[in-house]
């Protein structure tokens, strides 16, 4: 199966100026860097992109800037998830106008709707544009699962084409993959290789912000049939994955701290997030150095 959204996607941070405004030039620089170094898809305005604190206008401006920078070299997936169906539909239409190739839509959060309401929400968004949808299953943030049976029904819609899986339910993911044509993408970096090995289309990686070539190399090795090397590369990435994703801070915070240390566009995080401290940043730099050294 040809991955509909690409194979190695980065959940890209949203660069801001030192004053906290959107930095389109920085976004273009970072997007070009990520694509040049191995990403064939970019997810904008997702969790890592600080979507709760960017305006609708900023989201559209970001898509336009990145589209101009990467052209057709990478797929642009626009995060449009909100707790309000009407607002999500508006964002979907604006993303299509701005040049997105696909939409990332989370289950409505906070209100914790039942499964039939979640299904109706996704179908309303699917009917609003001509773009394919990637459903974002991340119950740790939304408070609700997209249950496997709901995914099985939604897979019948022609524009529901993919799932970004942060459910930590490996059995459910395999169940849906085995019974549908949905393209699954690992949304948690520790699952990139494991989910790929059972048929996923690729990954949507936060760690790819700072190590795009290394994240891609894992999937390249697996595709080449060298599963031993793929496992070794995944293991080698584990300390950085742990430092960025499992050490008590959101990936947005750790990615921006490390990007700044590496001299790449990032800027501050927006409140209520707070920047990483010096000790955390030093630890991130050390983990990154171990991953990227030769060998």
Describe this entry's structure for a reader.
This protein has 295 residues and is an alpha/beta fold. The chain is 47% helix and 13% strand. It has twelve helices and eight strands. The protein has helices at residues 24-36, 56-70, 85-98, 115-128, 139-142, 148-154, 170-179, 192-197, 212-223, 227-245, 251-261, 278-292; strands at 8-11, 41-44, 75-79, 102-106, 133-137, 160-165, 183-186, 202-205. It has an eight-stranded parallel beta barrel with strand order 1-2-3-4-5-6-7-8, surrounded by five helices. The two termini are 32 Å apart.
How would you describe the shape?
Answer: globular
Secondary structure class reads alpha/beta
Helix count from the secondary structure assignment: 12
Radius of gyration: 18 Å
Percent of sequence in beta strands: 5-15%
Give a topology summary.
Elements: E1 8-11, H1 24-36, E2 41-44, H2 56-70, E3 75-79, H3 85-98, E4 102-106, H4 115-128, E5 133-137, H5 139-142, H6 148-154, E6 160-165, H7 170-179, E7 183-186, H8 192-197, E8 202-205, H9 212-223, H10 227-245, H11 251-261, H12 278-292
Parallel strand pairs: 1-2, 1-8, 2-3, 3-4, 4-5, 5-6, 6-7, 7-8
Helix pairs in contact: 1-2, 2-3, 3-4, 4-6, 6-7, 9-10, 10-12, 11-12
Describe the structure concisely.
With 295 residues, the protein is an alpha/beta fold.
Search tags:
295 residues; alpha/beta; eight-stranded parallel β-barrel
């Amino acid at each position: 199966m040809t991955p509909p959204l690409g194979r190695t996607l980065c959940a890209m941070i949203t660069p801001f100026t030192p004053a906290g405004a959107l930095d389109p030039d920085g976004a273009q620089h970072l997007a070009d860097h990520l694509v040049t170094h191995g990403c064939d898809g970019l997810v904008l305005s997702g969790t890592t992109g600080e979507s709760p604190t960017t305006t609708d206008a900023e989201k559209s401006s970001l898509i336009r800037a990145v589209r101009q920078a990467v052209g057709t070299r990478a797929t642009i997936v626009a995060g449009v998830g909100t707790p309000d169906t009407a607002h999500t539909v508006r964002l979907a239409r604006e993303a299509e106008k701005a040049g997105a190739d696909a939409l990332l839509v989370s289950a409505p959060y906070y209100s914790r709707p039942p499964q039939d309401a979640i299904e109706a929400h996704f179908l309303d968004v699917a009917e609003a544009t001509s773009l394919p949808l990637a459903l974002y299953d991340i119950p740790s943030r939304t408070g609700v699962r997209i249950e496997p049976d709901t995914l099985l029904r939604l897979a019948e819609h022609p524009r529901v084409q993919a799932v970004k899986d942060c459910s930590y339910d490996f059995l459910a993911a395999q169940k849906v993959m085995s019974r549908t044509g949905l393209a699954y993408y690992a949304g948690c970096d520790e699952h990139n290789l494991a989910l790929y090995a059972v048929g996923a289309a690729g990954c949507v990686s936060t760690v790819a912000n700072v190590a795009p070539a290394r994240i891609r190399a894992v999937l390249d090795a697996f595709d080449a049939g060298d599963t031993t090397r793929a496992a070794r590369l995944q293991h080698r990435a584990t300390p950085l994955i742990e430092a960025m994703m499992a050490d008590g801070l959101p990936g947005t915070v750790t990615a921006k701290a490390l990007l700044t240390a590496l001299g790449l566009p990032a800027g501050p995080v927006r409140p209520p997030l707070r920047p990483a401290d010096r000790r955390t940043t030093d630890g991130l730099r050390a983990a990154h150095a171990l991953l990227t050294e030769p060998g």
